[in-house]
Amino acid sequence: MYEEVRELYLGSGFGGRVGFGKRAAVVVIDMAKSWLDPSSPQGSADLEPVLDHTIQLLQVARMTGHPIFFTTMAFEKADVQGPYGRKMLHLGARGSLDAGSDMVALDPRLERRAEEPLIVKPRASAFWGTPFDSYLVGRSIDTLIITGCSTSGCVRATAESAHNLNLNVVVVREAVGDRSPIAHNVNLTDIDLRYADVVGIDEVSNYLEANPIQ
Amino acid sequence: MYEEVRELYLGSGFGGRVGFGKRAAVVVIDMAKSWLDPSSPQGSADLEPVLDHTIQLLQVARMTGHPIFFTTMAFEKADVQGPYGRKMLHLGARGSLDAGSDMVALDPRLERRAEEPLIVKPRASAFWGTPFDSYLVGRSIDTLIITGCSTSGCVRATAESAHNLNLNVVVVREAVGDRSPIAHNVNLTDIDLRYADVVGIDEVSNYLEANPIQ
Amino acid sequence: MYEEVRELYLGSGFGGRVGFGKRAAVVVIDMAKSWLDPSSPQGSADLEPVLDHTIQLLQVARMTGHPIFFTTMAFEKADVQGPYGRKMLHLGARGSLDAGSDMVALDPRLERRAEEPLIVKPRASAFWGTPFDSYLVGRSIDTLIITGCSTSGCVRATAESAHNLNLNVVVVREAVGDRSPIAHNVNLTDIDLRYADVVGIDEVSNYLEANPIQ
Amino acid sequence: MYEEVRELYLGSGFGGRVGFGKRAAVVVIDMAKSWLDPSSPQGSADLEPVLDHTIQLLQVARMTGHPIFFTTMAFEKADVQGPYGRKMLHLGARGSLDAGSDMVALDPRLERRAEEPLIVKPRASAFWGTPFDSYLVGRSIDTLIITGCSTSGCVRATAESAHNLNLNVVVVREAVGDRSPIAHNVNLTDIDLRYADVVGIDEVSNYLEANPIQ
């Protein structure tokens, strides 16, 4: 169904191919218990393949020297006063995003290393209210490769921000997901038309291997 | 179909009602020839009702003293170098977004007044790369009412930014639109679940009349 | 000497009085051991009066219901890669800004309460790379009262950011300081001419008492 | 006198040398009639040498293929509502910053070319409320060389923003100035200690010649 949207938008001059640049980094969005564990209000059992593909890509990125960044979300109670907290009711639900809790800690299978920054982001985009742009600029990154969840929320918002900043943005098709497969498919199309190239994991891995850092 | 997504997300703690605050402003997104005229690459004939409903709402907002803001997009050739321009091919297509051209001028039926700022935005969101946040803060606005196009692009992005800033965000159902009705419906649901209350024009008009500025 | 600068700038149309608005908040900049303890690389023994005056103002602000925010700076090693870390050599000096250390914890005499957010800022301005703007907007704040250190660095940068956002900005003369009295005086003049009203603590206290929140 | 400040700050771990990176761009701040013409409220006759040195540096930058950006400030009346306009009284003074007037046009001796973007900035920093960061990222710039005026305002604010973004920032000593020589000297020291390397024009020219773009 959403294929109609793609055709219409391509005909209107959206959806150009951005391509890869010269220095890529990988950002892994919100791969923590709060989203991966079905017992969490906003958790989903369906994201295991997303985690698996992310881990697979991280192995390549580490071997080839590409910078890696992780995000999570975590809030003190005083941080969510106002309309933001009224829209996002799950922020206060059963402590699923409490700062310092194990719900917001990264999945240990990601094996984050000390030199891979963890960005605690207060909004959907990894850039909003964080110094992420300076991390990328300070490392001369021109290409941002995105994995994680959710496609319709934090992945899309991060892709939009990175596109705004004029980075080459690549979303790894098999390594992003959503608690709703429909929302996933629809938003992946919008992302591809507006903000980022949606590319298969093999092509991304090949790029990383062919373009090691240093 | 997308109703499934709504149900799943509501059950996960998204989609709370934000409500109206005490001082509202209206922003009209990209109601210029480049989007309204079907002869433009990204134009659509279907947005006339969006324009009509926007004009109807502006009449109420002006009578009740609410600040009004307009946006358009316009580029010099040197402004679009890099990945951004490669994704958005229509930026360079047949001059449809050239700075100073009549394609990017607001539709005259909006009758913009001198005290209603026009924001020339370089990206989808009215906030990105513009001083829009300072216009709202300087007027003590706590509620942003959004009309215009496109739902899947600039409307959604503006709603997200305003939500990030912790404003009460309201998207006027009949006064936003998209060149694709499917993209419109899907994104309107995402917006309502994540960033803004999607509210009918009668309810919005009633609020403005009941809460005049000064 | 710097009085010449004031005269010249006043004659050029700078230095207008901003005044107080209707809803004020207080932000206390970097009142932690790393700046207050002379044994820290960037510490100074001269800031005790700044702390005393800040505590005095906090007592008034708490009695009158005004929101209070605190900042500190703290870094993981991976966070400071690039030019930023090369300019700010003290970031890595003797652990004086290490995340989680007691050097970056607020002075206990401030008696921060749970509802008073602590913002861990990565740069001089309390706004840069943080969600501080959304904290203020979500509380409908139109006036930001600044105390803390250093006048020539984080105080000035925060005043500039708040001014950019179109807030009424007030810097409390007796409650800001610098490791250098000369840098303090010079920058206080620049702040007053360009970004904020520099106001004595008695006048600020009187305003808070006369304009309680709720 | 301000040499004392330098010594104290150097001893506290400020003022590290950032150095030049691999791809530099030049930004020329506010070299328009409104600042160069003594008949303007904020104009000064003393900035001719700053303009001369800027032109000299532009000649080198153009020969060596480095991207060049210009800024100016210009306002519609509706744009300056709120505290910002109350502090900056000269914004409304005798039309010295009116959008579209010849007061805000760049000095013709700069000979700006079509491929050199002009950024109309609403605040002191070239980055605030503008897409300047995306212009630099889209061109893979890691070093920003700053000329223009005023040292205590727009030059300092731009240097701070660029430093925040983790660029290598260089301020060209002979090519920046201020209506007050005292404010110039003091702020140049602060800039050098906190945000940017202050470097002589010969060294900057030599760098540009030794590191042409492509």
Structure overview:
The structure is a homotetramer of 214-residue chains. The first copy, chain A, has one domain: Isochorismatase-like (Rossmann fold). Helix content of chain A is 37%, strand content 16%. Chain A has 8 helices and 6 strands; from the N terminus they run αβααβαβαβαβαβα. Chain A has helices spanning 3-11, 33-36, 48-63, 83-87, 132-138, 151-164, 181-194, 201-210, and strands at 24-29, 68-72, 118-120, 143-149, 168-177, 197-199. The longest helix of chain A has 16 residues, at 48-63. The relative contact order of chain A is 0.21.
CATH class of chain A: Alpha Beta
Number of domains of chain A: 1
Low-pLDDT runs of chain A: none
| Number of continuous helical runs of chain A | 8
* Percent range of helical residues of chain A: 25-40%
Provide a concise account of the structure shown.
The structure is a homotetramer. Chain A contains eight helices and six strands; from the N terminus they run αβααβαβαβαβαβα. Chain A has about 210 residues and is α/β, with parallel strands linked by helices.
Key phrases:
Rossmann fold, 6-stranded parallel beta sheet, 214 residues, alpha/beta
Q: What is the strand and helix layout of this fold?
A:
Four copies of one chain form a homotetramer.
Chain A (H helix, E strand, L loop, with lengths): L2 H9 L12 E6 L3 H4 L11 H16 L4 E5 L10 H5 L30 E3 L11 H7 L4 E7 L1 H14 L3 E10 L3 H14 L2 E3 L1 H10 L4
Parallel strand pairs in A: 1-2, 1-4, 2-3, 4-5, 5-6
Helix pairs in contact in A: 3-8, 6-7
